[in-house]
């Protein structure tokens, strides 16, 4: 890069990092407040709070990166033009392609960063979040729940134990699970011990009964047991007890998911949509950067209003992103919508590039027509 190109890259790169950091911090703060009950009602430490809420940052970065790239490009070009630096550079012979080079480097870097977030970091963070929440529920159940009190662990799920015995065992356990519509399960056990097998947490109930009452049945079904392992993931949301969701699976798993798996067969459309959303996310960063450059890349005097160009760029970027969300929803229903999901960002980037370099494409044809007319 030349000195001018490094100067432009420094301005746009700094703007990208600032926009990315500020937007991520603001949105993370609004999301983190939803999980503030980790400390207030579930008795977790500040470290656990930041650990769990911090795991949503990769997904935020994936969504925010294209927006931050758009903001940075608009800001840098508007600043350069406002200081008359674009006009001076163009007068000194800086071509549109030379002006685009530092922005191209930023757009490629931003797209690669978005790709890393979408293809690797985001699914990893969602899996880690699943296990972290499971640990919180286990800790809440075995250490924080007070003996002798009826504690609501979830909507329709209540837990009670009489006292704590030697070795941390829970004595006199009662649990009522009414989360399933039309079904009620009552667990009674003399004692229970929390244990962990691999990444799964269990509460092993000893010497007790399970009473299942279905809606419309006259009498409950009673099952007696000497030992019964209760999956503690069930104490979280209903999604925690299900198989790995599409966003929790690695990109490799989504590329080779088993269509015979009952959970996949039930919702194969979301697996397909999630896979292609991960690959199209970097393309939207590319398109957003190109739209911003196409709108503001041409030098103008300070007397010319750039508000219309900025407004048009914002509108075009907004319509493109809304169209992307629509394509994702359509992919979940129809496999034939997959090409559309790729055509939108690639087409947006191509149209923006043609508009940005229209003068460079037009001049050769203009010179050719002049030569032909002279002949």
Automatic annotation (TrEMBL):
Domain of life, per lineage: Bacteria
Keyword Transmembrane helix appears in the UniProt entry: yes
Keyword entries, A-Z: Cell membrane, Membrane, Transmembrane, Transmembrane helix
Transmembrane regions: 7-29, 49-78, 99-121, 279-296, 308-331, 337-357
InterPro entries (alphabetical): LptF, LptG/LptF_permease
The keyword Cell membrane is assigned to this record: yes
Membrane topology, from the record: Multi-pass membrane protein
Localization per Swiss-Prot or TrEMBL: Cell membrane
Protein name, UniProt field: LPS export ABC transporter permease LptF
Organism per entry: Candidatus Rhodoblastus alkanivorans
């Amino acid at each position: 890069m030349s000195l001018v190109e490094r100067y432009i890259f420094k301005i746009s790169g700094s703007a990208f990092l600032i926009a990315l950091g500020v937007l991520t911090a603001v949105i993370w703060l609004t999301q983190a407040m939803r999980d503030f009950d980790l400390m207030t009602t579930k008795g977790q430490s500040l470290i656990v709070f930041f650990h769990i809420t911090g795991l949503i940052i990769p997904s935020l970065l994936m969504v925010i990166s294209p927006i931050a790239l758009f903001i940075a490009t608009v800001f840098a070009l508007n600043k350069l033009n406002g200081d008359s630096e674009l006009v001076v550079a163009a007068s000194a012979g800086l071509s549109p392609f030379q002006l685009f080079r530092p922005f191209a480097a930023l757009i490629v870097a931003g797209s690669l960063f978005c790709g890393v977030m979408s293809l690797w970091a985001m699914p990893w963070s969602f899996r880690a979040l699943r296990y972290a929440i499971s640990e919180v529920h286990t800790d809440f159940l075995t250490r924080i729940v007070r003996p002798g009190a009826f504690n609501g662990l979830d909507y329709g799920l209540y837990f009670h134990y009489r006292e704590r015995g030697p070795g941390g065992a829970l004595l006199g356990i009662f649990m009522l699970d009414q989360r399933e519509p039309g079904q009620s399960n009552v667990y009674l056990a003399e004692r229970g011990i929390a244990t962990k097998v691999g990444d799964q947490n269990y509460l092993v109930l000893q010497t007790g009964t399970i009473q299942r009452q279905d809606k419309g049945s006259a009498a409950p079904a009673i099952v007696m047991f000497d030992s019964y392992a209760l999956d503690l993931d069930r104490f979280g949301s209903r999604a925690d007890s299900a198989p790995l969701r599409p966003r929790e699976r690695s990109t490799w798993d989504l590329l080779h998911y088993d269509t015979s798996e009952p959970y996949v067969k039930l919702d194969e459309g979301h697996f397909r949509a999630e896979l292609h959303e991960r690959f199209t996310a970097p393309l939207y960063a590319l398109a957003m950067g190109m739209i911003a450059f196409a709108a503001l890349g041409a030098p103008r005097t300070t007397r010319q209003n750039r508000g219309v160009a900025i407004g048009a760029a914002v509108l075009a970027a907004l319509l493109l992103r809304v169209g992307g969300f629509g394509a994702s929803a359509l992919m979940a229903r129809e496999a034939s919508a997959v090409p559309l999901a790729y055509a939108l960002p690639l087409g947006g980037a191509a149209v923006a590039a043609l508009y940005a370099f229209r003068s460079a494409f037009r001049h050769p044809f203009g010179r050719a027509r002049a030569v032909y007319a002279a002949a």
